């Protein structure tokens, strides 16, 4: 009984639209500060349904970008809360990293897909009050290019 329930559940998850929903949700969660990775789920779905590659790239990119937007909003809200509690002190020295990030601004978010630094970078973008639309564009571009690269590597390796 239990074994058939598990098999039924796994079969249900293999239905393309349910699998895509799972990819979207997992891509969203992995783009937050939670220590998750969406690449395994993305790759697993790609192996099962290679004909849905472009739809998969779109769903994963949207989910991952929305997770980055959540991080941006959390950074923005936390800065606003901090400012309400205590005014920023004047004359504090900035680190080289902060100066670098301020110099490049939203363009840095093209690297928001990079493990360990990408998610905090999206929080810093909100904290620093970088304009939302450029942040969204560069974040989405970087994340989309990552998924295209993964799908391309899969496509090339499946022909070898």
Summed up, what is this model?
With 160 residues, the protein is an all-alpha fold.
Any chance you could write out the topology, listing elements then pairs?
Elements: H1 2-13, H2 16-31, H3 39-48, H4 53-85, H5 96-104, H6 118-127, H7 132-159
Helix pairs in contact: 2-3, 2-4, 3-7, 4-6, 4-7
Domain count: the total is 1
Largest sheet: none
Which ranges are low-confidence, i.e. pLDDT below 50, for 5 or more consecutive residues?
none
> Percent helix among the residues?
over 70%
Distance between the termini: 42 Å
The best one-word shape is elongated
Main structural class: mainly alpha
Tally of alpha and pi helices: 7
Order of helices and strands: HHHHHHH
């Amino acid at each position: 009984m239990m074994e058939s329930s598990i098999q039924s559940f796994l079969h249900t998850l293999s239905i393309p639209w349910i699998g895509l929903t799972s990819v979207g949700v997992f891509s969203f969660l992995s783009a937050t500060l939670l220590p998750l990775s969406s690449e395994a789920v993305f790759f697993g779905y790609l192996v099962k349904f290679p004909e849905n590659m472009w739809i998969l790239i779109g769903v994963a990119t949207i989910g991952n970008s929305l997770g980055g937007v959540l991080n941006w909003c959390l950074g923005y809200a936390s800065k606003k809360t901090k400012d309400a509690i205590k005014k920023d002190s004047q004359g504090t020295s900035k680190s080289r990293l902060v100066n670098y990030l301020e110099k490049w601004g939203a363009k840095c978010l093209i690297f928001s897909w990079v493990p360990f630094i990408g998610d905090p970078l999206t929080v810093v973008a909100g904290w620093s009050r970088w304009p939302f639309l450029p942040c969204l564009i560069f974040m989405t571009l970087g994340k989309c290019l990552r998924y295209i690269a993964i799908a391309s590597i899969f496509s090339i390796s499946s022909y070898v």
